[in-house]
Fold:
Amino acid sequence: MSAANQEILLAVRNLKVDFRLDDGAVLNAVRGISFDIPAQGTVALVGESGSGKSVSALAILNLLPAANASVLPGSAIHYRGRDLLHLTPREMTALRGAEISMVFQDPMSSLNPVFSIGFQLIEVLKKHVGLSGKKARERAIALLDEVGIPDPHTRVDAYPHQLSGGQQQRVMIAMAIACEPRLLIADEPTTALDVTVQKQVLGLISELQLRRRMAVLFITHDLGLVAEMADHVVVMRDGEIREQGSVEEIFSAPKDAYTQALLACRPPLNRRPKRLPVVEDFLDHTATSIDTTERARGLRGDEALVLEVSALSKSFHFSEGLFSRRESKALKNASFKLAKGKTLGVVGESGSGKTTMALTLMRLTAASSGTALFEGRDLLQLTAHEAMPYKRRIQIVFQNPYASLNPRLTAGQSLMEPMHIHAIGADEPARVQMAMALLRKVGLPESAFFKYPHEFSGGQRQRIAIARCLTMQPEVLICDEAVSALDLSVQAQLLNLLQDLQDEFGMSYIFISHDLAVVKYMSDEIMVMKDGEIVEVNNADAIYANPQNDYTKQLLAAMPGMKATAA
Structure:
């Protein structure tokens, strides 16, 4: 059946949503959008942060904050003959969860940490289905089994913190489908998950959709996922729909410049352009002048080494009861080399030891054993006084740009703090000038010097974090998921910036990420980790063309949107 002939389950018409800001100004978050969701179809709502995707979904469920959000007159959301915007609170409560359910992005903020997952599932069943007692518990166990939670009879009594991120998201999906809804809204349901867990969750949603004959509104900023999940795509920017059409139309012949930009910003797998295009290149109609030359990657084998790590191990000990302790080996005899001016990519799932390895190299956690030679000296054996000069030369950029900066310091103060600690710069005016120059280098105006972290976007905060590292002119920069939480266009800007800095200063990178396309684009050599061990190391192209380890093959097979990425 063609899309034009499908039954329409939900129709959004001229939806407008405004937010009243603290200073009295009005933010037009959604500006008159219209789209349809067919019965049993999948529609992807695509766009970057601030595009209005999640606001539109919350408007459908009447979950917008009443204190400062308002849906403007003339808006309509028709669901099976009823306008949801005109339902009473009681009618909307009855509909929400029973016929339209939502899976949110962060399960840990959606699940109550003080109640077991079984209790929270049963609560949904009591409210919307009328089940209680033994029948409700049996139904909760059956739902956990349906979404793939192992040993559901035991796990039904587990608390959220006792489950992995993927399992928590499965519980959220179980709660969403508990009442057999006709429409499931999935708002960035896999953003923080590993590529293999992401594939499992997406497969689960697709399987449940077919089995339960649901419609799905899939909200994401990753076009690679759209290629795998959706039938129809709606592209949003600044509260407006820029383009919509079938997946085939959007990916093969995008008409809007913004859609073209989103597709081009993603690092391709089949080539390595010297620079990634950014959104402004397309919106300013300069895409035709983008440099299409390739960037050489890989190692010859005779490069000078800047870091040589041997048998690095780290164990953590946990108390079990009053007298016993359990040992957990987070890192097991890791050995690798980092060439000067080159990038070592590190991939693996959560718990593989990637971040533990980075923290031990930075001496932010003590290694249990092993060596890390930098210019012939073992970094792990230095005293605190001896290590101080090396802290300038090895720096780290963390994943979360919102937790990396002190909220009480301006950007300028954050940049100048390490200068004071390490006596960099002749005097205060010289340090101010250095900080201003670094802000310009990472693409921020000098006015950013006087602003606080809350006044910046996530991408801008990450630029400040990189600039702070550059104050010490490091020779090795560890990027621990430094671009994973960013929109595609911001991610492209930062990847270009990192490559420019490497070209200019000859810096060496340890680039940690679960995004395999980004790792391949950035790396000369790739190291694959699993359960604290290194299972494979090879040149980036060789890893992708001919992986040797079964685990590496599993990671590559789980990569989403291959047809979109390689286009």
